[in-house]
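Pilot study result, target chain (113 residues):
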Amino acid sequence: MYKKEEKENVFNKIYDVVKEIPKGKVATYGQIASLAGNKRWARVVGYALHANPEPGIIPCHRVVNRYGEVSRAFAFGGENRQIELLESEGVAFTDGRVDLERYQWRRVYGIKD
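Predicted structure:
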């Protein structure tokens, strides 16, 4: 797998991207993986978010799967807590999913989403 330093570096890249997701928007695991440097890191994104060292600063609740579904194993209170956090930011759910067309974050340099 990864050496400890490599893992920490990868996790930090992931955390830096997740910190950019604005309130009221979500990103997918694959999207975060690509933006962090490797589109194959989607599972690694999940591991990193589960180990989130700063839950109040790194908004891991804003990361959903490719279908717009929340994590059943949301590390900080379960899927209901993740839904509560997203709804408190104005993200709506339809049939248990976030409408990615409406709420997915589109990173554009120099422009706030």
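One observation from the pilot: The chain has a mean pLDDT of 89. A full batch analysis is planned for the follow-on phase.
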